[in-house]
Design goal:
The protein is an alpha+beta fold. Helix content is 56%, strand content 19%. Helix 3 packs antiparallel against helix 4. The longest helix has 59 residues.
């Protein structure tokens, strides 16, 4: 074979080199693809575990929230039980053998105990004094009467006290409002 023939394109020696390089390159691509597929599968599995953990945490938090709501008032109720025990004892009293003053004194003690318990549990009483400006956020006007003493709407009588807890109104005070006609 002369020199010119060996340098012609398509010579078998060049094809062997190219074929070997292509098969090495193809093998490398196959290995990379397998590696990427394994990595992708690992990431999908990891994602599935994280999603399952998240859903379990959500369910656990929801269950804890429901339980907290169910037992939120347990402390208040426990602290009121002695007052109810005192009411039970008062109801068992033989009125023919007890004077009204003693019963009234006992009722006042129970009343004071309940008010103290409510206060200890952040319950505030809304009982405006006559002459206090009417506040629709705290008071509910049951009626309005003309009153020449006041230019603005002013509480002149309280029918029923209101209550709030941590600044949130549970029940507004029911009042009569007076204002110049």
């Amino acid at each position: 074979m002369n020199e010119n023939e060996s340098k012609k394109p398509g010579n078998d020696g060049d094809e062997d080199i190219l074929s070997g390089a292509a098969s090495d390159f193809g093998a490398q691509i196959d290995a990379d693809i397998e590696k990427l597929q394994a990595e992708r599968e690992s990431l999908f599995n990891q994602l599935a575990r994280v999603q399952a953990d998240f859903k379990n945490a959500q369910k656990r938090l929801e269950a804890e929230k429901i339980q907290a709501i169910q037992f939120a008032n347990a402390k208040l109720i426990q602290s009121l039980i002695p007052a109810f025990d005192n009411f039970d004892r008062a109801l068992e009293t033989d009125v023919s053998k007890t004077d009204a003053a003693a019963v009234l004194k006992g009722m006042q003690m129970v009343h004071d105990h309940i008010l103290k318990t409510l206060s200890e549990n952040s319950v505030e009483i809304i009982a405006p004094q006559p002459g206090t400006l009417f506040d629709p956020n705290l008071h509910q006007a049951l009626m309005q009467q003309p009153d020449d003493r006041y230019e603005q709407a002013t509480v002149i009588q309280v029918y029923q006290r209101g209550y709030s807890v941590h600044g949130r109104i549970l029940r507004p005070a029911q009042v009569v409002v007076g204002k110049k006609a």
